[in-house]
Each structure stands twice: as structure tokens, then as C-alpha cells.
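Good morning C.,

I know you're traveling, so I'll keep this short. The sequence:
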Amino acid sequence: MHTIKLKQVAPEPIADIAARDLSIWYTERSFECGRRYLIKSESGKGKSSLFDFLYGRRNDFIGNIEFDGASIQSLRIKAWTEIRQRHISLVFQGFRLFPELTVMENLQLKNQLTHYLSADKLNYLLDAVGILEKRNIALRWLSYGQQQRVAIVRSLCQPFDFLLLDEPFSHLDEINQQTICRLISDELSERGAGLLLSSLGDDYFFDFDEKLAL
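The C-alpha cells, ready to paste straight into the viewer:
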């Protein structure tokens, strides 16, 4: 996947109040593979909704969204499965992990679908984000910040053209933010992938090609 294009898109629940100036909503906007985009707004402006639309979790929007020129409205379940396994990876704001499973079991649920990362690379990533020693511990015993790091590593357990990060650093201190931003930047460069990151205001530690508002 090379391009994601929004054409006069707005969430149906807030279509009447969605901003029409200096905003992604109600415009034509393209996201290109290999480029990095920051999406900034206050809470409640639709950042998570946008990511849900792009991931196929919701379709309650007006306008049109296209992947490489094809409308996502025509995509069927099989096509969405392929997109989620091969082309778009998402770190959910609410993590969507399994607390009864260990850290490694949570990662293997994704990695076994794609067979993308070796055991050594998984251990390297866990070590890089500071939780290697937690790999065999049930997730429910980890702090929110540690769980957030698991969710970020899980997003890397697949190939992707675009990585979507929905307020991914809300439970992390500045040192951990810097470490993880460097790790993600290295992965993006290695894969030639694009980044869409939503934020309440922080730029974090990425070099963005474009900063947008909602």
C-alpha cells in the first residue's frame, strides 16, 4: 500500500460540529508510505475515530477513504484481514491486550499469524523497551506503562506499510518515550513505512514530515 487518501471525510456522530478549517475533516488529504505525520487535537475531536476508520473497525463516516485509489467501502472481510496482517498496524489507545496471558504469549498471538519476527528479534525488542525480564509474566501484573510498551512491540510483529499510533506514550516517562521513538524510527526506516501518530499536543521525539490538526 502506497497511499491513503481522505476525501471530505468526517465522523457521522460529529459531522455537524467537526472543524472545517485547519483540519483533516472535510478536506482532501493524502498520507504517503515512507512519510511521518503528526495528528494533533484536543480530546474528543476524533483522533481514535480516524484510526478506527483506517483500520476498518468502524465505517460510520461520511465522505470516502481510498487505499491506493480503491474505496475502502468495497473491501470485504478477507481483504481487511490481509490489510491488518500485512499493510497497516495499529497501537490502540486502550491497548487491547490479554491480561491473563504472559507478555510473550500476547506477542505470539500476533507474530504467529505473520511469522514476521524471529525469537531473537522479539527478545531484542523487549530488551530495547526495558521489559525483557517480564516476558514470562502475566500481563495483569505489569504497570500501565509496561503494558503500553508491550502493545508497541506487538505492533512491530508484522509487516506494514503504515504504522498507526493512537496516543501511544500516555503512560511513559520522557526517557522511555525517547528510547521507544528511536526504536520505532529505526523500524520505519528499515521497512520504508509511513507513520501516523495522534497526540493531544506533544511532538514527542520524531522528525515529522507534516503536522496536521483535527
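Safe travels,
E.
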